[in-house]
Design brief:
Keywords: Hydrolase
Bound molecules: aspartic acid
Number of strands: 14
Structural class: alpha/beta
EC number: 3.5.1.1
Pfam families: Asparaginase, Asparaginase_C
Enzyme class: hydrolase
Largest sheet: 8 strands, mixed
GO molecular function: asparaginase activity
């Protein structure tokens, strides 16, 4: 569909919730690598995207302005609650969230589980600050608005639009520290592609999300502590003991291979599980699944397998799961469904 000739009253209405990131970053010159994230407001960002007002009526709200390395559950809860407050309004056809790329995948997954609407929710960022030569932010933002304004984006959960690609929150991951083509969805592939406001759709995510999600954060002000612990050669098990001592309610192991860890870590994780801390085995390997009872006896040890979720997303799901009392079986089922 072409949006260019739309009259004002036909134009979809898109609200942008801005949170910062490199897309709102600024440097002193156009060619330096150092810059400050979250320095530019949403109004200034919109002013740098010629023609965006032709594809939608766009309204911006500044919710936060941080580099996404400083994204917090406080801010994410605020964003989720704001989405849930405005989504039912007739003057909102779609929502765009500007966000840094560092933790975009976790935030997208968090909102995928906590936003309660079928309307398009699209996250967008950039790899180059707004002041850079060939900044990628303006076209990414244009495409994100084009996706949020597209009725075909409805019901696909939270999407991430960058570099002309449309990814699903469940499956995307950041793969390059600096390249413009940083996001990939290695297991499941793209949901679609976006080109100057026109979209082609390939897939719909199969995982439960948004309106089918059982997680309700309307009265939540804090999430339980869940730590991610990286497994490697000769790792000391006492990192796991320390996490338990610090009050973690859940621990995600970024395991080697199929969610494995050495004997010292298995012993410590099994102690943690016996004390009631939920232990999830994920993998530091970027593709493939972590299955139950493959090299470790999860049934005996009381562990959960993260299946397709990477450690950072497995942590989000566990933090939400732990908002209420659940059996190990029920928690495992969440990893199969979400
Ligand atoms: N550190 C930045 C951030 O995540 C990087 C970026 O946005 O690309 O906010």
């Amino acid at each position: 569909m072409c949006w260019y000739a739309l009259a004002d009253q036909q134009k979809p209405k898109v609200t942008i919730l801005a949170t910062g990131g490199t897309i709102a970053g600024a440097a002193a010159t156009g060619t330096q690598s150092g810059y400050t994230s979250g320095a530019v407001t949403i109004d200034a960002m919109l002013a740098a995207v010629p023609g965006i007002d032709k594809i939608a009526t766009v309204k911006g709200e500044q919710v936060a302005n941080v580099g996404s390395q400083d994204m917090s559950f406080d801010i994410l809860l605020k964003v989720a609650k704001r989405i849930n407050a405005i989504a039912p309004n007739a003057d909102v056809n779609g929502i765009v969230i500007t966000h840094g790329t560092d933790t975009m995948e976790e935030s997208a997954y968090f909102l995928n589980l906590t936003a309660k609407t079928d309307k398009p929710i699209v996250m967008v960022g950039s790899m180059r600050p707004s002041t850079a030569v060939s900044a990628d932010g303006p076209l990414n933002l244009y495409n994100a608005v084009g996706v949020a304004a597209d009725p075909k984006a409805k019901g696909r959960g939270v999407l991430v639009v960058m570099n002309d690609q449309i990814h699903a929150a469940h499956s995307l991951t950041k793969t390059s520290t600096t390249a413009v083509e940083t996001f990939m969805s290695p297991g499941r592939g793209l949901v679609g592609v976006a080109s100057y406001g026109k979209n082609d759709w390939y897939n719909s995510p199969i995982w439960k999300h948004t309106t089918q999600s059982e997680f309700d954060i309307s009265n939540v002000t804090q999430l339980p502590r869940v730590d991610v612990i990286f497994a490697d050669v000769d790792m000391p098990g006492d990192l796991i003991d320390a996490s338990v001592a610090k009050g973690a309610k859940g621990i995600v192991i970024a395991g080697v291979g199929n969610g494995n860890m050495n004997k010292a870590a298995v012993d410590a994780a099994s102690r943690a599980a016996k004390s009631g801390v939920i232990v999830v085995r994920a993998s530091r390997v970027p593709t493939g699944l972590v299955g139950r009872n493959v090299e470790l006896d999860d049934d005996k040890l009381g562990f959960i397998a993260s299946y397709e979720l990477n450690p950072q997303k497995a942590r989000i799901l566990l933090a939400l799961a732990l908002l209420k009392q659940r059996s190990l079986d029920d928690i495992q089922k969440l990893y199969d469904m979400y």
